[in-house]
Write a structure and sequence with these properties.
The protein has 2 helices and 15 strands. It is mainly beta and about 200 residues long. Strands 1, 3, 4, 6, 11, 12, 13 and 15 form an 8-stranded antiparallel beta sheet that branches. It has a 7-stranded antiparallel beta sheet with strand order 2-5-14-7-8-9-10, with no helix packed on it.
Amino acid sequence: MEKLFYRLLIIILFFNYYNFSYAQSYTSLFNGKDLRGWTIHGDEKWYVENGEIVCESGTKKEYGYLSTIDYYNDFELILEFKQDNDGNSGVFFRSTLEGTKITGWQAEVAPPGSYTGGIYESYGRGWLIKPDSKKDSLLKQGDWNTLKVKVIGSKVTTHLNGIQMIELEDEKIGEGKGSIALQIHDGGGIKVRWKNIKIKVFK
C-alpha cells in the first residue's frame, strides 16, 4: 500500500512538472511563411520576405497595424527587429483596434533618440515611462535588435539587446485585455523587419 502511494505521488508530481514546464515554454507567433494568425489593419504594406515580416509605408503614409487574432494577457514576448529605413514603429500589448484607431500600450520601437523600450499609451496619457537617455546607444540602427516585453498583471518590463530599459507598475494596464500588435507609424518612408517572434504565456 505504501509503495502504491509513493508511485501515485511520483506520477502526480511528474504531471504537475510537465504542465508547469509546458506553460513556461515559448511558442512561435510567426510561422516564417505567411501571416496566418495575424490581422492587417489599414492600407500600409505587411508581407513576408525571407522568413521575416516586413512593414513598409504605402502611398497613403498612414498608421498601420498587424495584430494577433488571439488575446494575450500575462506573457513574455521576445522578437527581433531591424530598421531598414526610418524605424518608427512599436509593439502594442493588451490592445484592441477599430480600423486603425488603437487602444492599449506600446513598447516603443523607434529611431535613435526616440525612446525605444519606453511605454506609450495611444489616445490616452501618452508617455508613461521613457528609458534613461544613456541607454539609447543600445539600439543598433540598421542591424538586428532583440526586444523583450514582459507583462504580468499591472507590471511591465522591457529589455533591449539583453539590457533592461524600463520597469513600470500601472493600474490601468493591469485592467487591460487584448492582442499583440506591430505598428507602422504614419508619415511615410518607414520600413521595419521582424522575425523570431515568440511568446511565453503565464497561466
